[in-house]
Structure formats: structure tokens, C-alpha cells
Design a protein that fits this description.
Layout: H1 3-13, H2 39-42, H3 51-71, H4 77-90, H5 105-109, H6 119-131, H7 135-147, H8 155-167, H9 171-183, H10 191-203, H11 207-217, H12 229-241, H13 245-257, H14 265-279, H15 282-293, H16 304-316, H17 320-332, H18 340-352, H19 356-366, H20 376-388, H21 393-403, H22 412-424, H23 428-440, H24 448-460, H25 464-476, H26 486-498, H27 502-514, H28 522-534, H29 538-549, H30 558-570, H31 574-586, H32 594-606, H33 610-622, H34 630-642, H35 647-658, H36 666-678, H37 682-694, H38 702-714, H39 718-726
Helix pairs in contact: 1-3, 3-4, 3-6, 6-7, 7-8, 8-9, 9-10, 9-11, 10-11, 11-12, 12-13, 13-14, 14-15, 15-16, 16-17, 17-18, 17-19, 18-19, 19-20, 20-21, 21-22, 22-23, 23-24, 24-25, 25-26, 26-27, 27-28, 27-29, 28-29, 29-30, 30-31, 31-32, 32-33, 33-34, 33-35, 34-35, 35-36, 36-37, 37-38, 38-39
Protein name: Sel1 repeat family protein
Keywords: Signal
InterPro entries: Sel1-like, Sel1_AlgK, TPR-like_helical_dom_sf
Length: 727
């Protein structure tokens, strides 16, 4: 018997518990358990503590533990029946030794490996324990519906269970209720009331409440109430002072990445490593893996080998996130030798147990042409299964699959249908996509008024993503349907920033620097962007670099832009390396340096950035900034094209016409441009028109040239229209 269970016994036998209803409802055919009589049967009640109370609480604890085995896929109905028979045999008020009831089911029946998760059986057991007065069972039910790993996610139902647990005096229930109120999850958002509930627990010395407060104030945190990194770090430090390891991990992370404190990578990592060495905490291992792989936006030098090692250690301890990350990295060959099948098998193993996050990751893998040939049917099946388990993000992924994945044919109506399903499931991103596509008339009849109304309803409810999307629409405008309105765009971005959105603050700051939609305020705008950048936000650093390098601040500062891009690159933004390469390749206030440019492109390409690989291939084929190797260079360019980027074929055509590879090869250029044009590149049509107009590498043919220019006009390319008029 485990020591943990003996401790439970010592508590419940002491009688510090609530009594449970004495009556039993009809037996459940699935489990042989008494089902709760109804919603009111779950409500914990108070009665005089007697000898049976401790026994019933102990019995409830055993039902909860058995439910956990069902939930986690570690038992079967046949194996569990022996435990149920044992517990039913104990249901004797005359037994004074309640400790017998708390033998762990896993000790009694053993753990069945790779059993399918059975959320229904788990729920039945939790409900039975709840009807016996267990507020912990109510917490399990809340967690089940909140996490949505093995049952359909249902924030509203989760909130109701947490609320019942809170009313029964469960401090964790109060914590979850406060959190969901503060974030507006499953209940109308009431930030003040939520923070007050969490604050009361924190003031009483609850370290988990302190960590939650830190999460709510930390930049980039989901559902944060304000972006105040120093305040967040203060809460984490208080939790760490109470010897709470989760607090120590958060403090170490923020110090390592310089968020809310002066950056000290060595000290931050040492704090995390201390927790891991002392406790073998898988959360610490996953955090270290994330820091070294940039999954969390840290500023530690990327070391995918180290990251894989940490994830692998977490996986070896059975941690599901560790297994997930290890499988992904194996399949993609990141930080370890690629073993697509082994990685896919790991993800499939988790997915087959009903883990919705694994199902999503598997769908992502199967639909990524850069890793292996796309298996669209298997990807859809994986996403659909996740959706059937209530993970509405899977429906958004399915919509994206048919509207944003260049490796398969675009199908806007199918994409829109998936977004509608996600929207109907309450998914905010789904609602935004539906509104956006309705405005643009993609996959559905265009209705600007209805689409804007949908997005505005989300924005009015405080959704910062909706505000940012509306800001973008008004900033760009939509043909003659929605005139660009910089002032309206700025208003949305400013509201988004006030709601705590980092991207809202960045966009508002950009517009202030440039004087778009608001009086120009270079200092104020830069301050807004820098504040987000200094909090470790790579998008803000990219913006800061662009503002510094394009002269928006009043002068061009290429050196300052390079520094900002370097910081963004340290946060894992591979496109920042490409931007630095562009600066050194083109020259200007910084002298052109092809060798440096090539090195930045090479670094980006080796880390997986397709544009970096494309630039590297182009320069290798030309012998620009590196030794010329035509075969190797063309191979890199073709790899990018086969990976789904049609612009690679535009570059390939340019190379065949450049003379850098030898004699001009017009036929090869035409074939490459035609390939790009078939994939929607209107600039390839322009190049084909130029090629036949000038007779470069092919016989001059004005008719063909005009035909290609007209096709480009039909593709709504403004540059093509201008050129067609000139000719």
C-alpha cells in the first residue's frame, strides 16, 4: 500500500469531512455502481459527523482513484470489476477500520498499460464519489470538462462543478472559480470578483493562488488581466518563498528570459535545474526543453539537442507533454536523427488513448509537407476525432487545412463549413474566421455588414483578437467594400492594447510612430513597442526593427535594426535572421556584405526557415557570398518548391534567365514560371509576359506576352494592370 493512501486514510478517519447521502439509486449496468439521483445529489451536505462519515469519505477516495485509472487509460472494465467488488464488500457501516477502504486500486488490481481511456466510466465513478460528499470528486469532474483531453471540453459545465466544490469549502474549487471569472471562461467575465477570490486565497498563504495571480499578470499569458511582468514576478517569488516548486520554476524562467527582471540566464536555469534535480519534476524538464527549443519564446541560445534530451527525460517519466514533444521532434528530426515513423507511433499511441492534444499534433504532422508527403485523409481523421472529443481547435485546424495549407488544394467552402462548426462550439477563433470570411466573401456569400457585426460582437465582449483583426481590416481596407480608415483601425488597436494585448500595443505604437490615424508621436509610439519588446515579445522586436530600419522614426538606423532583429532571432524568430541577411545583401547605411548575408540565410535555412533556405540556394547557385555550386544551389531551391512554396519556382526561373548558371535557358525558365503561376503566383505571369515581350531565351511573341499580362490582370495584380496599360 502506498504511503499517500495511508495519509488519506489518516485524514478521512479523523472525521474531518462532510457526510454523504445514505440512500442509493439504481445500479449502473456499466459499472455496478449506484448512479447519483440527480444534480442535487452531487451537492455536498453537512450533517452530524458519525462513525460512518470517515468510512464513506475513504470509500469515495477509492472511487476517485479508480476513476483516475479509467480517465488515464490505465485499467479495463474487467480489471476494475475486482476492485469494485472489493469496495462493495467493504460497504458495511459496522466496520470500524475504514483504512481498508483506501487501498489504492492500482495496488489492488495493477495498472493495465495502454488501455483505452474510458471517460464515461471515470465520470460515473466521480459522480458516485461526489454523491457521497466528496468535493474532490467535483474537482475531478471540473478538470475533466475544462481540460477536454478525453471528453468534450465544456467550460460552462466545468465552472458549475468547480462552483459546487467551492461552495462545499474546497479551496481549489474557489481558486478555479476565481480564475474562470477573471478570464471569462465558462461564465461571464468578472475580473474584479475573480481577482478578489484568488487574492483572498493568496493572502491566506495559498502558493497556487500566488502562481495563478502571476500568470494573470504575465505578458503573453492566456486570458491575462493586465501586462505587468514585475507584478507577475513578485507573485511568483512569494510562492517560491513558500517552497512551492511551480513558483520556483516560474521565477527561474522569468529571470532566464529577462521578463520582469534583469536577465540572468545562468541564475534562471540554475533555479529550474535545482527543482528538477531535487524532485525530477517533469514540468521542469518540459520547461527546460521549451527554453532550449524556443517553444516558449525564451532567449536562451537554441540547442535542439538539449531540448530533445529534456523532453525525452520527461517522456521516460510518463509525462504526456514530454511524450508529445518527443514524438514531434523525432518525427521532424529536430534535435535528434529523424525517425518519422517512430515519432508518429509515439503520437499515435497517445492519440489512441483519447488524448486530444496528441490528436491535434498528429494532424499537424500528417498535414505538413515539409516533413513527409501529406496524408490528408489521415490528418482529417485525426482532427475529426479530436473535434468529436470536444476540442474545437481541431475544427479550426481543419478549416485552416483547406484555406491556409499550400500543400493541398484550397477549398474555401469546406474551410468555411469547419469554421462554422468551430464557431457553433463556442470557439472564438472559429467565430473570428467566420466573420472574416463573410466580410471577404471567401467560401460563402460576401456580407460585409454581417461579418463586421460578428467580429464587433466579439470585440465588444472584450476579445482582443477580434479587435486586432478589425484593426487590420480597417487599416488595409477591402477594395470598394470597406474603405481603409486609419483612425478606426487605430481605435481598435488602442482598445486591444488597453485589454492587455501585446499585439494591440505593438500595432497602436506603430501607427503612433508613423502618424497613421492619430497625431504622430514617435517617442510615445516607440515607448509602447519597446515596452512589449523588453518583455520578451518577438513580434514587438520585429516591429521595432522595421520601424528603426525603414526610417519611420525620422532616420534610417540599419545598425539598430540589426540589433533588434538579433534579439528577435534569439527568441526563435527565424525570419529575423532572413531580415538581417536582406540588410547585408542589399546594403545601404550598412555596407553590403554578401558573405554575412549568406551566413544569416544559411543559419535560418538550417533551422528550418524555408525563405532562408531559398535565399541560401539562390546565392549558392550564383556564387554570391559563397563558393558557387550550381547543382547544390538549384537542389535547395527545388526542395523549397516541393515543400509547397511556389515562389521558389519564380526564383528558379530567374536563375535560368540570369546567366549566372551559364547560357540563358528560356525553356527551363518558362517551365518554372508556369509551375509558379499554376500555384497562384501572379508575378510569375508577369515574368512570362516580359520574357515573351523581350524574346529572352525564347522567340519574341507579342501575342503571348499580352495573353500572360491579361492573365495577371485577371489575378488582380495591380502592378500587372499598370504594365498592361503602358504596353
Amino acid at each position: 500500500m502506498r504511503i499517500g493512501w495511508l495519509l488519506v486514510a489518516s485524514v478521512v478517519v479523523s472525521g474531518i469531512a462532510e457526510a454523504s447521502p445514505a440512500g442509493q439509486a439504481p445500479t449502473s449496468p456499466a459499472l455496478g455502481l449506484a448512479s447519483p439521483a440527480g444534480p442535487h445529489a452531487i451537492q455536498a451536505t453537512k450533517s452530524k459527523v458519525d462513525a460512518r462519515d470517515g468510512f464513506m469519505q475513504a470509500l469515495a477516495a477509492s472511487y476517485i482513484a479508480l476513476g483516475d485509472l479509467y480517465r488515464d487509460g490505465k485499467t479495463t472494465a474487467a480489471a476494475a470489476e475486482a476492485a469494485l467488488a472489493y469496495y462493495r464488500g467493504l460497504d458495511n457501516p459496522g466496520r470500524p477500520a475504514a483504512i481498508y477502504a483506501v487501498i489504492s486500486p492500482s495496488d489492488l488490481i495493477g495498472v493495465v498499460k495502454d488501455a483505452p481511456a474510458d471517460p464515461y466510466a471515470a465520470s460515473e465513478l466521480y459522480l458516485r464519489a461526489a454523491s457521497m460528499g466528496s468535493s474532490e470528486a467535483l474537482m475531478r469532474l471540473g478538470d475533466l470538462y475544462r481540460e477536454g483531453r478525453v471528453v468534450a471540453a465544456d467550460p460552462k459545465r466545468a465552472y458549475l462543478f468547480y462552483d459546487q466544490a467551492a461552495k462545499a469549502g474546497n479551496p481549489n474549487g474557489k481558486l478555479r472559480v476565481g480564475e474562470m471569472l477573471a478570464r471569462g471562461q465558462g461564465v461571464a467575465r468578472d475580473t474584479g470578483k475573480g481577482l478578489a477570490m484568488i487574492g483572498a486565497l493568496a493572502d491566506a498563504g495559498n502558493p497556487e493562488a500566488l502562481v495563478l495571480l502571476g500568470d494573470l499578470y504575465r505578458p503573453g499569458g492566456q486570458g491575462m488581466v493586465a501586462m505587468e511582468p514585475e507584478k507577475a514576478l513578485g507573485f511568483y517569488r512569494k510562492a517560491a518563498a513558500l517552497s512551492y516548486d511551480a513558483g520556483k520554476l516560474r521565477v527561474g524562467e522569468m529571470i532566464a528570459i529577462g521578463q520582469g527582471a534583469t536577465q540572468d540566464v545562468a541564475a534562471g536555469l540554475a533555479m529550474i535545474e535545482e527543482v528538477v534535480a531535487r524532485t525530477r519534476n517533469p514540468a521542469g524538464l518540459v520547461l527546460l526543453g521549451s527554453l532550449y527549443s524556443r517553444a516558449d519564446g525564451g532567449v536562451i541560445a537554441i540547442d535542439l539537442g538539449k531540448a530533445f534530451g529534456y523532453f525525452r527525460r520527461a517522456a521516460d517519466s510518463g509525462d504526456e507533454t514530454g511524450l508529445l514533444r518527443t514524438g514531434e521532434m523525432l518525427a521532424r528530426g529536430r534535435g535528434t536523427s529523424q525517425s518519422y515513423q517512430a515519432g508518429r507511433t509515439m503520437l499515435t499511441g497517445l492519440a489512441d488513448r483519447g488524448d486530444t492534444f496528441a490528436l491535434i499534433a498528429l494532424g499537424d504532422l500528417l498535414s505538413d509537407a515539409a516533413v513527409a508527403p501529406v496524408d490528408i485523409a489521415a490528418a482529417v481523421t485525426s482532427y475529426e476525432k479530436a473535434a468529436s472529443l470536444g476540442h474545437s481547435d481541431a475544427l479550426v485546424r481543419l478549416g485552416d487545412l483547406y484555406s491556409r495549407n499550400g500543400a493541398i488544394a484550397s477549398d474555401p467552402p469546406k474551410a468555411f463549413a469547419y469554421y462554422v462548426r468551430a464557431s457553433q462550439a463556442g470557439n472564438l477563433t472559429g467565430k473570428l474566421r467566420v466573420g472574416e470570411m463573410t466580410v471577404l466573401g471567401q467560401g460563402t456569400d460576401r456580407n460585409v455588414v454581417a461579418g463586421l457585426a460578428q467580429m464587433n460582437s466579439l470585440a465588444d465582449a472584450g476579445d482582443a483578437d477580434a479587435m486586432n483583426l478589425l484593426g487590420g481590416l480597417y487599416q488595409r481596407g477591402i477594395g470598394g467594400l470597406l474603405p481603409a480608415n486609419a483612425a478606426t483601425a487605430f481605435g481598435y488597436y488602442r482598445k486591444s492594447a488597453e485589454a492587455g494585448s501585446a499585439m494591440g500595443a505593438v500595432h497602436a505604437g506603430e501607427m503612433m510612430v508613423r502618424g497613421q490615424g492619430t497625431p504622430r508621436d514617435v517617442a510615445g509610439g516607440l515607448q509602447m513597442v519597446k515596452a512589449v519588446a523588453d518583455a520578451g515579445n518577438s513580434d514587438a522586436l520585429m516591429s521595432l526593427a522595421a520601424l528603426t530600419g525603414d526610417g519611420s522614426t525620422g532616420k534610417v538606423d540599419a545598425s539598430g535594426a540589426v540589433l533588434a532583429y538579433e534579439r528577435a532571432a534569439a527568441l526563435g524568430r527565424l525570419d529575423a535572421l532572413v531580415r538581417i541577411g536582406d540588410i547585408y545583401r542589399l546594403g545601404g547605411t550598412i555596407p553590403a556584405d554578401p558573405a554575412k548575408a549568406f551566413d544569416y540565410y544559411r543559419r535560418a535555412g538550417m533551422a528550418g526557415d524555408e525563405t532562408g533556405k531559398l535565399r541560401q540556394g539562390e546565392m549558392t547557385a550564383r556564387g554570391e557570398g559563397t563558393r558557387q555550386d550550381i547543382v547544390a544551389g538549384l537542389e535547395l531551391v527545388k526542395q523549397v518548391g516541393l515543400g509547397g512554396d511556389p515562389y521558389a519556382y519564380v526564383v528558379l526561373g530567374d536563375l535560368h534567365l540570369s546567366g549566372a548558371l551559364g547560357p540563358v535557358d528560356g525553356d527551363a525558365a518558362v517551365a518554372a514560371y508556369e509551375n509558379a503561376a499554376r500555384q497562384g503566383r501572379a508575378d510569375a505571369l508577369l515574368r512570362l509576359g516580359d520574357l515573351y515581350r523581350d524574346g529572352k531565351g525564347v522567340p519574341a511573341d507579342g501575342g503571348k506576352a499580352a495573353e500572360y499580362y491579361l492573365k495577371a490582370v485577371d489575378a488582380e495584380n495591380p502592378a500587372a494592370a499598370a504594365r498592361d496599360v503602358q504596353n
